[in-house]
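User: Can you write out an input/output pair for a complex, sequences first and structure second?

Assistant: Here is one pair. Inputs:
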Amino acid sequence: MQLSDINWFKYAAPQRFYPLAGKLLPWCAAVAVLLCVAGLALGMFIAPTDAQQGDAYRIIYIHVPSAWMSMVIYLAMAFWAAIGLIFNARLAAMLATSLAPSGALMTFIALWTGALWGKPTWGTWWVWDARLTSELVLLFLYIGFMSLHAAIDDIRRADRAAALLAIVGAVNVPIIYFSVKWWNTLHQGASVTVTKSSMATPMLAGMLIMALAFWAYCIAVSLARLRVVILEREQHTQWVRAELGVRS
Amino acid sequence: MGGYGLYVWGSFGVTAAVIAAEIWLVAARRKAIGNLVADAGPDESKDTP
């Protein structure tokens, strides 16, 4: 079987994607739980105390994964919003709206844990430097996306308006990522890149495992929310009524 | 946690709480749409000539 034999558009229909999401969801959730247990065991019990920061550095096991996910989810949201806008694809627009709350949550966690890490290491909860401020702008973009979508009654118009905001806001993601290079910030530069790392192996392994756990969790919860969004939007169709066990 | 317990557990605790809240909110939303469709009753539109 070749890739060209696969009908990629088969699952573009919400009715077809709904059961597929239901099958993927428990696997992603199980992977998230297992990786989280492994990552925390490695990070909290095996990885040594940092010579400079003491045990305060262990916040890294949720701060970095959540910060990465906040940016990845935004790019995914903007991508699917753009697909929905360009091709008038309903499922893509639903996926974008399903990703937004998880992205906002990851951004909040990154900011919260960053503040709790900043106090013992920098001596302050917050500074208006480029990295922190651009991450806060990301939270406002997520909130703006969800608020704009909720404010428009016509759901397809809401999809289009929110998609424009998501696409324009995507410019903030590279600003967040490169802010520590472009400006002189209190936030440290990247400890990990694709080619090198300045971290001890157990610390790095624990952080990367937690990053994968966050990936799996975000996919699982976004799929769960997408299934709910599909049911909400297709509630007047026969297949949803049958799915929910309502006599037609 | 070498004197950093407030910061470390404050991070992990709030993260666990908001993730639990997110899961609960999705489950509640799923229940709400189920109830909404069930309360609407049988679809009688197909009986309309």
